[in-house]
Amino acid sequence: MKIYVVSGLGADFKVLEKIQFPKHHEVVFIDWLIPEQNEEFLDYVERMAEKIDDSEPFYLLGYSFGGILVQEINKLKPARKVVILGSIRSDKEKSVLIKTGQITRIPKLLPVRLFNEKTTSIYSMFRKFFDPKNPKILQYFQVRDPYYLKWSIEKISDWKFDENPDVIQILGDKDIVFPIKNCRPDYIIKGGTHLFPATKSKEVSNILKGVFD
């Protein structure tokens, strides 16, 4: 069976490269598309979902923003199982910072030029606060198209979703982006920051072996 995987905001698949997926399944990574001008989120989800062959059973796995995306894809093309890493199951699990962005509409007001190459490099450096011991932090955030970054932050801020209890949530207990205090995860990665798929890959791999039976 195929496992379709979507990585996080601005992240390529290096953050997931150490995870050992069950060998009897085929892993298919879905690259981020660049949003069209003023594209609605659900239209974008439909375009991403085109890459999934639903003529046979499949699994979905998403990391961070990718976790939000696969839950939306699941409404269009239902998967056998949906697993999210370092992500949330509903808008009720958003952090205070993200909720503030939703209320104030600040992400929408920010100019696209703020997300240029120089700024995104600084942004990536800032991510060191999420996992200061990880020397590869800059290598994980390679999708730096300014419009894509601004658009994605807006959509995360605005996202509204009723929790699907069947979605399997794996979360790090040191995650700042999506704090565990707002969630009831099925699996907790001890000492895991938002980058736990890279830093705690053995623990994640063992969990996935049981989930993707």
From TrEMBL:
Please indicate which superkingdom the organism of origin belongs to. Bacteria
Q: Which Gene Ontology molecular-function terms are recorded?
A: hydrolase activity
- Provide this UniProt record's keywords sorted from A to Z: Hydrolase
Q: Which InterPro entries match?
A: AB_hydrolase_fold
The protein's name: Alpha/beta hydrolase
Native source organism of the sequence: Chryseobacterium cheonjiense
